[in-house]
Amino acid sequence: MRKSKMKRGLACLLAGMTVFLSVSCSGETPKSVDPPKEAVGEGEAAGEAVGEVQLKCACNTVKVTRTEDISALLDAKTEGLFFEGARGETEGAQLILRTEGTARFDVEMGDLTSGTGETIPSSAATVYAQRYAYTSKGFTGFPADDYPDALVPMEYYKKAEENHTEADKNQGIWIDLKIPGEAGAGTYTGICTVRTEDNAIEVPVSAEVYDFNMPSAPYMRSTYLIWQDWLMDGELDNTIEKYGDYYDTLLDYNLTAYYFPAETGDVDGFIACLRQYYPRVASYGIPYRDQTAVFEDGNPYGGTAGESYKSIDYVLLEEYLTAIARASKEDGTNYFEKMYYYFDRVYDEVSEDRYPQMRACIAATNALEEKVAGQQELPEEMAASLAEAKHLMSVVHGWQEEFAQYKELMVSPLYDNLGSTKNIEMYEELVEQEYTIESYGTIQSFPYPTRMIDEYLITGRDVFWSKFDYRLTGDLFWNVNGYCNWGAGNVVGYGRISDLYGTSCRDGVTDGDGYLFYPGRPYGSEKPFPSLRLMAVRDGIDDHSYLSLLEEKSLALAEQYQVPTEGIRQAIRTINEQIYATGTSKLNFTGLSDVRRTVARLIEMADSEAGLVLLDFDTTEEGVSCSLAAKGGTQVQLNQEVLTAQGEGQGSEIYTMTGMAYAESGVLDLEACGITAELTVGKRPEVLLDVEDSTQIERLRVNTELGSSVAATWEAIGGRSGSSARIELSGAKLDTDTQTQTYSPYVFFDVADIDQTEKISFLLYNSGEALEINITAGTEDGMTYPVDTIVLPANSWKEIEVGNLNRISRSESTLAAVNELRISTGNLIDEAGNTYKRTLYLGSVYQKLE
Amino acid sequence: MRRKNGKKTAFFLALAMGAAMLSGCESNTAKPPEASGEKVVLCGFESLNEMLNTNLQYMRARVEITDDEQYVTDGEFAARFVIEGNAVEDEEGNILYYKDNPIYLFPGNNYMPKTDFSDVKKYSIDIFNANERPLEIVFGYNHPDAAQDSFQFGKRTLEPGKMNHLEFEVNNDVAASFVDVTAIKNFFFVLEGGLAGEKPLELIFDNFCAELGEGSYTASEMTGEIDFSREADVYKFSEMGGATSKLRCPQYSLNTDLNYVSTGRSSMKIEFYENKLGDGIDSIGFRTRDYMLDGSGISDYENAYLEYELYNDTDQVITVQMSAYDPLNASFGVSTSIAPHSWSGKEGTSICLKTLKEYFLGEGLDIWTVTFIVSGIQEDGDCLYLDHLSIVER
Fold it and tell me: How far apart are CA B133 and CA B131, in angstroms?
């Protein structure tokens, strides 16, 4: 099993490397865009000489461009297609076809059969042809090329007679497998046949069905906006029925739009939708109409008397809330639980100048909720849910002090606000204080999660792993159907795009922002077609559901066993370390499926007779620590060794291992009840800089002699005995104000092999008030790259882990050239202009290689 | 192509063409008349892809391509529009009416490569009105609401239950006075919106064409006089303020009935229409479009006046407030009352330029627009006649 997984992993790795290496390439000649082509009745005739046919596998976490070399990818005929997922889940797999000459092609999935005779019918599979768009804006830094994005179902592709390869160009094929809700767990096999003219290649297919069900509604809340008016630009139809087609299709990708498919003001229609969709959505929004109001004299919102401001129609809002209240009582369902508001025209991306109208809106909504709860005599639980209904508040620059007074906000900062330890810890603290935090993305590129066409596919997926860890409860995207060119206005609206499948830039700046769908009508479909990027979002939300299920089941078992729960999140976080660090994707193209499998197996273990829960899991320089509980009498094995319980819980046994050696394979196999979960531990962290060795202290240097210094010390500091490096950083006054303001004292040490490093860790003690430090990487040629910003608490040790090293650069050569790491502060100068010193104590520095 | 060859067909087509040229409006047949000059199909409505080169975003509708012979007048297909419309509601959420439905077609692409329309002498389009009542539609260049750089050819009525072959004659001497006809940005068709309670409007479009001619023209310059001695003068006006429908805004046409002329041989008829709410007239008045009056030749402001003469052809006394605005929105106005079926008097119908200069903010005397707010118009179809709006030296 592991050998074939390694080979599959190698296939993905090479594909990922190819994409990765293409970052370093430049100088692609821009290509012309093809003129619009009718979908029906046209298509080039296949060439007579097909020539060599290559059919390769690629991970579902990578994009393979039209032109890139696929010779290093693994052969599909021998490696096969591999799916794995839970019941009710849809998972994708990818083939790349390449023919020497042009050729018609077709793909047919057969039934999949398990060892026990169960069948997943071929109808559970949807085969898509990938269409390519030439990207040229360069916003992401990736080179111009034909990137795959639109996915056209093969039945439509064939009808349009477009199912032909281009000579010596890649043709991507994406296959979704929806695992039936009633499928038995186990392995199913079958054949996928790829035909090119007279040639047929049979690809073995294997599907692993995990023994648990996906939830009917995802755990991750989402607001992905469908712009109804703009549907006209791609579908030539912007009726509510067409909006409904999009709404329904979004649900298939675990996403919800803000509005149900009912016109604003159609309260009865809204309630009908509420009843229909409620079980499938994580949340739903309340329609509204905006109005203009005027601040009264003496208003409590800080508005200027007589000044007009954006408000909403509260009469309409009351109608909606009243209707929901009545439906809740009639149906015995607390529909308020999933309700939220997004009065974007009042407070979207709010800033200080709009605080008064935001305050007025929240106050008025709260008053209305109370009124409706009273008038409708809502039961306590429903009234509480109504009172707790939240406003989605997107914010470009992150948390604002204004929000501190409102627990009824879902504060959603841009992804780049969660790219440093400082900010992540701030938001985690806010979550602890019961604020609701989400995040959203727009025009961004790596190292931030992004939805650009010429960007990594995986970051649109693994952002949801970080959202789980940081307890971010939702995601927002401004438009899934940007079918016009809003980067080019004209007298009567935005610019037109005649070839939506081939035009990647719609805003004049990026390739891909503002749309995740492609119109179906050009192909004769009333439903829109997805993009690869939408698949990544769907899969990421499924991954998030896995993590949420694992936590939920773990907490339930821990409560049942009456054992501590504090380490459960840390255990999951350690598992997630393979996927991202400090809000930055680790670009683990090959390993994501392995980590996901680990989570799935742990869920199965929790559900099994073993009732196994991972209570703690960590990897440090001292070894691997792991604590778990299982039902009494269960045999639990770790790397084929039967474990002995060290304690008991309620009806359970507790197993605790500390300081375990790192397995050579980098993996611990945890097994119970015939289920095995692989816990990735990686390599043992090695000492990079040993502060016990005074000669190594010399490797620590400060940037200037302006009062900063480094020395070895053996004094016990902050309750920790042993050696450390005593670093004194000193502020300085320089010749000019600008020089003084920008001066940054720092200590640095040499590093190597950063391109092969998983993380660098060390302990740092701050002797003084809380201090903000920056971690920066430097290269041989004098370039510096910010890595992290961390707040050191006052007079205490902090464990620093620098795992987001690929934040420095996507380029392997740049990473390889990193030769120093710096710890710096802003200039240490007080308000009176006096310089001062700050002493830090550094423990040994460890480097964990990949 | 569905046209048959044959003398009989040609004869009837010629008859139809003649009738169309005279009426400029409709045809019962699904086949357009033969063009007299070279014909260029600007939009054949042949495919969904072709329709993606239009902007229909401002209507709530669904468009389908049909090959139903009843509706196809050229090529193989036509485009069926089923228009639900964007509703205007009262405070209780009751639908009052539906907004107008604009259609914008853009030149300069694979489907409509032509951008220079200076050689066009006529436009035509075939529209089947599949509804139970007549519908109004206007057609023009660029933006229907813009006060500059736009041109409206005129309003037409689409008769119900039949194919309407619409034609719009082009006088580039006039059109070029307002837009750059060598670089048209877009065409607009604005179809009136539906009525409250009405089912979605259904229309089928085909064969939007341009008939070409010589291509020579002479645009007129703006002067200090609008006396309707030139055809272009009638196009120098637009509605004042908002309206429930573009199709119900005041319409302007050249009048040569001397009963409604004070000086010269022509005046401008201004016809008002009831708004879609049924409680008054659409638009509170009318105004000149931007920079239609050029007073730069005047040096003696003290003895120069901006004046007008207006005939009230209604049964009510009307009050007219004329105001002149500069580009910085500074203004000065005068007011007068006009008895039914009477001309305006001398009082309150002129502004001394010296006074204007005192109120205007900028250098010189730059008249951005002259507005006429008219109160007292009550009936649908009520008319006024503007004899002139001029800067005169006394």
Answer: 6
Is residue A624 within 8 Å of A668, Cβ to Cβ? yes
Residue of chain B minimizing CA distance to A34: B110
CA–CA dist A535, A798 (Å, integer): 39
Looking at the structure, tell me whether residues B159 and B138 fall in a common domain: yes
Mutate to test the interface with A, among B62, B76, B109, B149 (most CBs of A within 10 A): B62
CATH code of the domain in which B31 resides:
2.60.120.260
Shared-domain flag, residues B262 and B135: no
Distance to chain B for A528, nearest Cα, Å: 15
CB contact under 8 Å between A491 and B149, yes or no, is yes
Residue of chain B nearest A500, judged by CA positions? B52
Q: Are residues B231 and B257 in the same domain?
A: yes
Q: How far is CA A289 from the centre of its chain?
A: 32
- Are B47 and A38 inside 8 Å of each other by CB? yes
**Which CATH number belongs to the domain containing residue A837 in this structure?**
2.60.120.260
For B167-202, b/e burial (b = at least 16 CB within 10 A) is bbebebebbbbbbbbeebbbbbbbbbbbeeeeebbe
User: In this structure, what CATH number is given to the domain that contains residue A208?
Assistant: 2.60.40.10
Q: Is A591 among the domain residues? A: no
- C-alpha dihedral (B371, B373, B374, B380), degrees to nearest 10: 80
Residues of A in contact with B57 (CB under 8 A): 229-230, 232-233, 238, 484, 493-494
CB of A670 within 8 A of CB of A634?
Answer: no
| Same domain? B208 vs B232 | no
* Closest chain A residue to the Cα of B56, Cα to Cα: A232
Q: What is the pLDDT along chain B (394 residues), one digit of tens a residue?
A: 223 333 343 333 334 343 333 333 333 345 666 666 799 999 999 999 999 989 999 999 999 999 999 999 999 999 999 999 999 998 888 899 999 999 999 999 989 999 999 999 999 999 999 999 999 999 999 999 888 899 999 899 999 999 999 999 999 999 999 999 999 999 999 999 999 999 999 999 999 999 999 878 888 888 888 999 998 999 999 988 889 999 999 999 999 999 999 999 999 999 999 999 999 999 889 999 999 998 777 888 899 999 999 999 999 999 999 999 999 999 999 999 999 999 999 999 999 999 999 999 877 788 999 999 999 999 999 999 999 999 998 8
Which of A148, A179, A213 finishes a domain? A213
Write down the ipTM of this complex: 0.86
Chain B touched by A238 (CB under 8 Å) = yes
Same domain, residue pair B119 and B76: yes
Task: Name the domain boundary from B188, B212, B236.
Answer: B212
